[in-house]
Amino acid sequence: MNEDIQLDARSLPPPEPMERVLELLPQIDGGKRLRLL
Predict the structure, then answer these.
(1) DSSP letter string over the chain?
(2) Which member of 21, 23, 33, 37 has the greatest number of CB atoms within 10 A?
(3) What is the per-residue pLDDT for 19?
(4) How far apart are CA 37 and CA 21, in angstroms?
(5) What sign results for the dihedral spanned by CA atoms 9, 17, 23, 31?
(6) What pLDDT shows up at residue 37?
(7) Residue 17: domain span
């Protein structure tokens, strides 16, 4: 899963990757957060 997220982040060349990552985190990390809990 980590590799997929990294590839997606590199594929998208947004001016503010941090903000874009924060927006995508809840959608992609949704399953991972549930596992951590």
Answers:
(1) -HHHHHHHHHH---S-HHHHHHHHHHHHTHHHHHHH-
(2) 21
(3) 73
(4) 21
(5) positive
(6) 52
(7) 2-36
Structural tokens at position 27: 């959608």
pLDDT in tens, 2-31: 666 566 656 666 566 667 677 766 666 666
Q: What gap in Å lies between CA 5 and CA 12, rounded to an integer?
A: 11
Position 6 scores a pLDDT of 60
What pLDDT was estimated at residue 14? Answer: 57
Residues 10, 1, 34: CA angle, nearest 5 degrees: 125
Collect all residues with Cβ–Cβ distance below 8 Å to 26 and sequence separation of at least 6: none
Q: How many domains does the chain have?
A: 1
